[in-house]
Amino acid sequence: VLSGKGGVGKSTFSALLAHGLAADETKQVALLDIDICGPSIPKIMGLEGEQVHQSGSGWSPVYVEENLGVMSVGFLLSSPDDAVIWRGPKKNGLIKQFLRDVDWGEVDYLIVDTPPGTSDEHLSIVQYLSATRIDGAVIVTTPQEVSLQDVRKEINFCRKVKLPIIGVVENMSGFVCPKCKNESQIFPPTTGGAEKMCQNLSVSLLGKVPLDPQIGKSCDSGQSFLAEAPESPATLSYRNIIQRIQEYCEQHHLQEEKIM
């Protein structure tokens, strides 16, 4: 899950994608947080204060459900307020450890939450996973041009490193007032928003997620927004997007099997 921009909701989307995929109990889902300097996945998943345990087969992920394991540098810090002040090589070493030394077991989906930008962590994860034939990247943006500008760079990055793009999610796309039901554009799409950008760059738009104050509350309390607000327009939008990602991955695997 990528975006050139910070604060667009990558970690929230990664967490809800993990919850959505893990709703199918026959699937094993892993969520890896490689935002080394700003690990927010432990908080969002309700796992703050959890520790990583070492076993004979490596580090054990922290489990939210039996079929949903999580790993983050946040579990290795003595306090959530500790700053990780590392240069690139040390970050890359930890990402490699997360992939090599964590006993993930057999997983159907590995979701990787990334920091903003197109540098060390992004290059490392693409390089280390290159042999696994990554299904693709989900790119998250908000409607305003200042966000789209950085997201275009991220799409360019994906193309340069030959990382397939599953599609773009437009987050914080309008707000429906719960009282009067009027829709407001909190972040006006002055240049046409994600829809126009996707048309121009020939990328799929997976969907638009409206703002809902409950999303922030759920993240702060470590609960799944999908379970807490099942009737919210944002939940319906998330579910549609998650279904489209599932269909894409299944299709991708069928094509892989034909090639092999």
Automatic annotation (TrEMBL):
<dbReference type="InterPro" id="IPR019591">
    <property type="entry name" value="Mrp/NBP35_ATP-bd"/>
</dbReference>
<dbReference type="GO" id="GO:0005634">
    <property type="term" value="C:nucleus"/>
</dbReference>
<keyword id="KW-0479">Metal-binding</keyword>
<dbReference type="GO" id="GO:0016226">
    <property type="term" value="P:iron-sulfur cluster assembly"/>
</dbReference>
<keyword id="KW-0547">Nucleotide-binding</keyword>
<dbReference type="InterPro" id="IPR027417">
    <property type="entry name" value="P-loop_NTPase"/>
</dbReference>
<dbReference type="GO" id="GO:0005524">
    <property type="term" value="F:ATP binding"/>
</dbReference>
<keyword id="KW-0004">4Fe-4S</keyword>
<dbReference type="GO" id="GO:0051539">
    <property type="term" value="F:4 iron, 4 sulfur cluster binding"/>
</dbReference>
<dbReference type="InterPro" id="IPR033756">
    <property type="entry name" value="YlxH/NBP35"/>
</dbReference>
<dbReference type="Pfam" id="PF10609">
    <property type="entry name" value="ParA"/>
</dbReference>
<keyword id="KW-0963">Cytoplasm</keyword>
<dbReference type="GO" id="GO:0140663">
    <property type="term" value="F:ATP-dependent FeS chaperone activity"/>
</dbReference>
<comment type="function">
    <text>Component of the cytosolic iron-sulfur (Fe/S) protein assembly (CIA) machinery. Required for maturation of extramitochondrial Fe-S proteins. The NUBP1-NUBP2 heterotetramer forms a Fe-S scaffold complex, mediating the de novo assembly of an Fe-S cluster and its transfer to target apoproteins. Implicated in the regulation of centrosome duplication. Negatively regulates cilium formation and structure.</text>
</comment>
<keyword id="KW-0408">Iron</keyword>
<keyword id="KW-0067">ATP-binding</keyword>
<keyword id="KW-0411">Iron-sulfur</keyword>
<protein>
    <submittedName>
        <fullName>NUP1A factor</fullName>
    </submittedName>
</protein>
<dbReference type="GO" id="GO:0005829">
    <property type="term" value="C:cytosol"/>
</dbReference>
<dbReference type="InterPro" id="IPR000808">
    <property type="entry name" value="Mrp-like_CS"/>
</dbReference>
<dbReference type="GO" id="GO:0046872">
    <property type="term" value="F:metal ion binding"/>
</dbReference>
